[in-house]
Write a structure and sequence with these properties.
alpha+beta, 3 helices, three-stranded antiparallel sheet
Amino acid sequence: LEARRSRLETLYQNDAVLDQRSWLGRLESVEVCCGQDRPTATVRLQSPLGYTHQETASGVGPVDAALRALNLAVSHYIPIADVQMVHYRCLATTADSPVSAMVLLERQMALFPGRGFHLDVVMASIEAYLDALGYLIFCDRL
């Protein structure tokens, strides 16, 4: 009985994550250029309806530039003007180990956590941001 319950909980959790991600669309590409005065990033997203949105932004670092570009692209089909990132943390144990990124978004006094894992700092940060947006959108639908 315990094994069945554990399997059902896992299936439910996986379905909830898939449902969150389906409302975000699909990340097609991320390009970051750090050779200029300020890093610049270009993000291309495909919305859930199949439209492609590409945005470019600059920031104080490559992660900041990528998250700004992502925010611009997502804002074409998700209203996020009132969303603020209130916490960001990135952890890696060695130079070639996977990176763990954590993001905390706030909207109308509600907090939405996100976590991402990747070998690249920028991609881990983007995954964490999209994860938090997934929770935000999922909770808005309830």
